């Protein structure tokens, strides 16, 4: 998978699992509904693996790729405790997925990864996902955000995540969010829906 780097944040690992994972539980319910059981799935920028565990529980064969070592360690700890076999976590950079052949997966997912990547990094990740999977599920903050409390809460969460993180979120937002990135990577949108008071968008694509 090329260079092994690290992308640490103060909240990676246990803090993310305790505070952020529960906040996104409903989003993962919906993603899990969309994915047929027994699919072969790549979860890009998988964090603590919360979605991977759900998909593995419904019989999918899952690989999670993640750049932050603390996130991967937390995911592997939970996997060992649960003795789950149809799941693997790889510490690596999703801009270079060269160990996977073309269309090796039924589905590649990225959830809440693109808004924290620089534009060029996000484009490379999407191009790699398009290469290795037959279908894509791309999930992130909707742009524009609703002006109501729900939209303000999302922005507040991004500020708390730290200045670097917030700067990249602002850049993602300024460019036009997923619409811009998907167009740039020539990804064809098949279906889209907004959930959690229209703050989050789930896109199915190829
Ligand atoms: C906000 S978290 C989302 C985690 C998880 N997908 C979720 O839905 O909760 C974004 C994750 O993207 C990871 N990440 C950022 N750039 C990456 C890259 N180039 N390759 C793999 N993971 C990356 C970060 O380390 C972080 O864990």
Write a structural description.
There is one protein chain. This protein has 206 residues and is α/β, with parallel strands linked by helices. It has one domain: 3-Layer(aba) Sandwich (Rossmann fold). The chain is 43% helix and 22% strand. The protein has helices at 14-23, 25-34, 50-57, 69-82, 119-132, 149-160, 163-175, 177-184; strands at residues 40-44, 61-66, 87-91, 105-111, 133-141, 189-195, 200-205. Strands 3-2-1-4-5-7-6 form a 7-stranded mixed beta sheet, with helices on both faces. The radius of gyration is 16 Å and the shape is globular.
Describe this protein with a few key phrases:
Rossmann fold, 206 residues, 8 helices, 7 strands, binds S-adenosylmethionine, single chain, alpha/beta
Q: Largest beta sheet, briefly?
A: 7 strands, mixed
Q: Please state roughly what percent of the residues sit in beta strands, choosing from under 5%, 5-15%, 15-25%, 25-35%, 35-45% or over 45%.
A: 15-25%
Question: What's the N-to-C terminus distance?
Answer: 23 Å
* Strand neighbour order, sheet with most strands: 3-2-1-4-5-7-6
Which bin fits the share of residues in helices? 40-55%
CATH class group: Alpha Beta
Low-confidence stretches: none
* Apparent shape: globular
Rg (CA only): 16 Å
What is the CATH topology?
Rossmann fold
The CATH superfamily is Vaccinia Virus protein VP39
CATH architecture: 3-Layer(aba) Sandwich
């Amino acid at each position: 998978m090329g260079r092994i780097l690290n992308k640490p944040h103060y909240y990676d690992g246990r803090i993310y699992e305790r505070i952020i994972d529960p906040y996104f539980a409903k989003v993962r319910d919906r993603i899990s509904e969309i994915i047929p059981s027994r699919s072969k799935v790549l979860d890009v920028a998988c964090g603590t693996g919360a979605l991977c565990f759900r998909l593995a529980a419904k019989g999918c064969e899952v690989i999670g790729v993640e750049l932050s070592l603390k996130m991967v360690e937390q995911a592997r700890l939970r996997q060992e405790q649960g003795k789950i076999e149809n799941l693997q976590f790889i510490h690596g950079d999703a801009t270079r997925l060269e160990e996977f052949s073309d269309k090796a997966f039924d589905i590649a997912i990225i959830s809440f990864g693109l808004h924290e990547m620089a534009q060029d990094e996000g484009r490379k990740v999407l191009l790699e996902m398009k290469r290795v999977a037959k279908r894509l599920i791309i999930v992130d903050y909707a742009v524009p955000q609703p002006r109501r409390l729900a939209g303000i809460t999302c922005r507040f969460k991004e500020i708390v995540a730290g200045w670097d993180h917030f700067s990249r979120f602002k850049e993602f937002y300024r460019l036009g969010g997923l619409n811009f990135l998907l167009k740039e990577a020539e990804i064809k949108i098949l279906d889209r829906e907004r959930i959690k008071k229209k703050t989050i968008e789930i896109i199915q694509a190829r």
